[in-house]
């Protein structure tokens, strides 16, 4: 198996994440004199668009605990007999915008709340209020515990960059910048498409492909020249709907069969396996 450089040498020092602003210029396709190196693959693929939580860093565990605490309390207050479970996370929440996930879980138990407004306080019983309540709990856990990327993340990201791949993070989270900075990954991803940017630009959340398509445009590439890497069924479905050249599922608990059913071209267990596959493709062969 192809091995990326050591993790210790691959992880840059923490830095504040670079983000796009509302007045960012529209993306322009590369010109014939584009100074970037040729595609690292003979079929033209040259960019990798990573989801963050559960793909680059194990922050999905913090999200899962925060969601569980929230809905256990909500269901107890509402007298719901069917308890919240991990299945609710993977079916209704994983990879989706926060408010969409809240509404989906409530609907699964026959509950309904007003949507409210995005700036609803955490103690308001609305869809946005519950979302803010969960995010407050997540941020507190992140502050207490910090976050370390998966052991192979830094090495794989650096190896891909050195091999000529353009890289971006596409996340439904409003905390993507803080997580990247805390994990020492901010400098590796000059392009970060997160929930705040999606709201500014009116991008529909996953499973719609809008945020991935936006990232590809910012890199000056059609979707067929980019790889989507996701651990959530909704994210995999977004990559498939967007017509991306390769959609890779990382099985962190959603299940291989579920990711394939959602549209993944292949499923890997970790990013080292992803690196091995892409390195093989770069050399004109497919690692199986």
Provide an overview of this structure.
With 288 residues, this protein is α/β, with parallel strands linked by helices. It folds into 2 domains: 39-58 and 150-282, 3-Layer(aba) Sandwich (Rossmann fold); 60-145, Putative phosphatase, domain 2 (DNA polymerase, domain 1, Orthogonal Bundle), CATH 1.10.150.240. Helices cover 43% and strands 8% of the residues. The chain contains 12 helices and 6 strands. It has helices spanning 7-10, 59-78, 86-93, 98-108, 127-145, 153-162, 176-182, 195-201, 210-218, 233-241, 256-262, 271-282; strands at 47-50, 166-170, 192-193, 226-230, 246-250, 266-268. α7 links the parallel β2 and β3. The longest helix has 20 residues, at 59-78.
Descriptive key words:
alpha/beta, Rossmann fold, DNA polymerase, domain 1, six-stranded parallel sheet, 12 helices, disordered C terminus
- Which strands sit side by side, in order, in the main sheet? 3-2-1-4-5-6
CATH architecture of the largest domain: 3-Layer(aba) Sandwich
Q: N-to-C SSE series? A: HEHHHHHEHEHHEHEHEH
What's the overall average pLDDT, rounded? Answer: 85
Uncertain ranges:
5-37, 284-288
Beta-sheet strand percentage? 5-15%
Helical content (DSSP H or I, runs of 4+): 40-55%
CATH fold category name of the largest domain: Rossmann fold
How many strand elements?
A: 6
Q: Tally the helices: what do you get?
A: 12
Shape: globular
Give the radius of gyration. 19 Å
CATH superfamily of the largest domain: HAD superfamily/HAD-like
The description of the largest β-sheet is: 6 strands, parallel
